[in-house]
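Today's session is about reading a structure prediction critically. Students often jump straight to the picture, but the first step is always the sequence itself: look for stretches that repeat, for charged clusters, for runs of hydrophobic residues. Only then move on to the predicted structure, which in these notes is written as discrete structure tokens rather than atom positions. Here is the chain we will use throughout the hour.
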Amino acid sequence: MSRPMNRRQDNHKISRELFVLTYGALVAQVCKDYEKDEDVNKYLDRMGYDIGIRLVEDFLARSAVRKCRSYSETVDVIAQVAFKMYLGVTPSVSCSKTTENEFFLILDKNPLVDFVEELPAGRCSLCYCNLLCGVIRGALEMVHLAAEVTFVQDRLKGDDVTEIGIIFSKKVEDKKHKRKK
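Below is the predicted structure for this chain, in token form.
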């Protein structure tokens, strides 16, 4: 009976590895297409954003999570459920000591860089995994939460961990308008 479960886990591992290899090829191509790291970073963020606005429906359907009541609860769901579901890792969460709307996801292991040892030569400003920031930002926007999502630390740039910062700005207003009487 445990055999089908192992097969399922093997399929997820293969899918994850295929995604990581494909992502590496994508980043290499985007680096060829754009000279400036800033342009590559924007492209990866925008691509991630487009994925995030579509991925949130799948996430909500598959995870059966309830509506979050706070920024803290939202970040916990992102770390403990979404990252685990899609990337197979669970980042730790820390919050800013000065504001209630700033959080950090700390990845001891970043699966997107499993097959990457260093950034390409001359690409020191490249945020190789900027796709993740876009995915998080896009998904949050779809649940009416505006946020700035950026890399704070990156192992590919010599840091000890990979750290993603999330600063919630305000709730995105619904497009529904109240009727005037």
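Discussion point for the tutorial: The two ends are 64 Å apart (CA to CA).
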